Amino acid sequence: MGTVFSFDVRGGEPAAVRAALDEAVAGLHRVNEVFSTYREDSQVSRMTRGELSVEECDAEVAEVLELGAEAERVSDGWFSMRYEGRLDPTGIVKGWAAERAARLIAEAGVSGVSVNGGGDVQLLGVPGPERPWRVGVSDPLRPGGLAAVVSAAGADELAVATSGTAERGAHIVDPRTGRSAVTDLVAVTVVAPRLTWADCWATAAFAMGSREGLAWLESLPDVEALLITAGDEVRCTGGLASRLG
Fold first, then answer.
1. Among 184, 167, 176, which Cα is nearest to 231's?
2. Distance separating alpha carbons of residues 238 and 142, to the nearest angstrom
3. Is the distance from CB of 114 to CB of 134 less than 8 angstroms?
4. For residue 170, pLDDT beyond 80
């Protein structure tokens, strides 16, 4: 997936945790083998060339395609699984894979787990008694600084995902034109229970621009967001303040 994953696991029986971690890591490598658009032998690449049907692929391929279709529907097409006319589910795979890895480790009986995939984070449980998970949101206009700190206090599960130009440049595509999205935004951070959706919604909102993106994010249940423009304006959904701290 072209990025680094890290795990922070609290509690649990050491042998069970180690086994779950090994399984989670192996699962991430398998996701890369199946979904990578850069590997000629991946199932997604072979399916794009017509060498495999969805039914002949691993069951996870159909699952991800269904989730991606739902993201396209909810975002009115601003999130897309197509690039240059080809199937490309990479916009949803990373968040889905990180969330799945976190849930697998949680099933090992831990008190809390955080999985960070390239800066997008899925949080489950708690890191300690009376201590919530906290996630710093990088300031895209001030390298090394934080734009906000998100707290998972009171939530059994929470995800934080950011889309923007600070780390990877203009890599987000406008589905209407097929070219890089040109908007007034430099970053969109979405806070939601599931990383699968938080990642998708951040990407879609960035492509929309600050005005339309903020209005759309406000309409989604259990979603809060922080949007930063190139002019250093900060725009937030109405309930975001309850998640900062």
1. 184
2. 25
3. no
4. no
Question: Tokens 């700190």 belong to which residue?
Answer: 149
First CA to last CA distance, the chain:
31
**What whole-number distance in Å separates Cα of residue 20 and Cα of residue 237?**
36
In contact, 67 and 196? CB cutoff 8 Å: yes
CA-based nearest residue to 236, from 152, 150, 167: 150
**What tokens does 184 get?**
């007034």
Q: E-assigned strands of 26-171?
A: 82-83, 86-87, 112-117, 120-125, 134-138, 146-151, 157-164
Is this model's pTM higher than 0.85 or not? yes
Predicted confidence (pLDDT) per residue in 50-107, tens digit: 999 999 999 999 999 999 999 999 999 999 998 878 899 989 999 999 999 999 999 9
Residue 27 CB-density burial (10 A; 0-12 exposed, 13-18 middle, 19+ buried): middle
